[in-house]
Amino acid sequence: MTGPGSGNSAGNAIGIIETRGVVALTAGIEAMMKTADVQTIAVERISSGYLAAAVRGSLAAVRQAVAAGSKAVEQYGELRAAQVYPKPHEHSAALLANGTSDRLARAIEAAP
After folding, report:
1. Contacts of 80 (CB under 8 A, 6+ apart)
2. What angle do CA 48, 70, 18 make, to 5 degrees?
3. pLDDT tens-digit map of 8-67
4. Main-chain phi, psi angles of 25, to 5 degrees
5. In a 10 Å sphere around its CB, with 0-12 CB exposed, 13-18 middle and 19+ buried, how is residue 89 labelled?
6. At 42, which helix (H) or strand (E)?
7. Cα separation of 85 and 21, whole Å?
8. Could you give all domains of the chain from N- to C-terminal order, each with its CATH number?
9. This model's pTM is above 0.85
10. Who contacts 36 (Cβ-Cβ below 8 Å, separation ≥6)?
């Protein structure tokens, strides 16, 4: 299957937003997914109340998604950080591959 994150240059950028609160993070993820052609590749609890989400796609899509996600987060909570990595090193990108994307894919498949 081809697409973001499948090894092609079109899916090589990664964007991360860090928030305080589940509602804010959910709003950010929803905005990122609806605004641009990106895949959510990780959702992590950083510490008590702080969470982060990462998306992957083309550089333009990731930039657009992170901007929209950041704006949505600010409406519902606290945006701690937002960053776009245009061409992450394969080892850096592998740090996000901790099984989260597999859990997300199973949840999407199981949804009605």
Report:
1. 18, 19, 20, 50
2. 25
3. 445 689 999 999 999 999 999 999 999 999 999 888 888 888 999 999 999 999 999 999
4. -65, -40
5. exposed
6. strand 39-47
7. 24
8. 9-110 (3.30.70.1710)
9. no
10. 57, 60, 61, 62, 64, 65, 68
Q: Tokens representing 73?
A: 């987060």
Scanning 1-112, the segments in alpha helix (DSSP H) are 22-35, 59-76, 90-94, 100-110
Tokens of 50: 């702080």
Distance CA 12, CA 6 (A): 9
Closest to 50 measured CA to CA, from 79, 87, 21, 73:
21
Number of residues in the chain:
112
Amino acid, res. 11: G
* Residues 61 and 85 sit within 8 Å (Cβ to Cβ): no
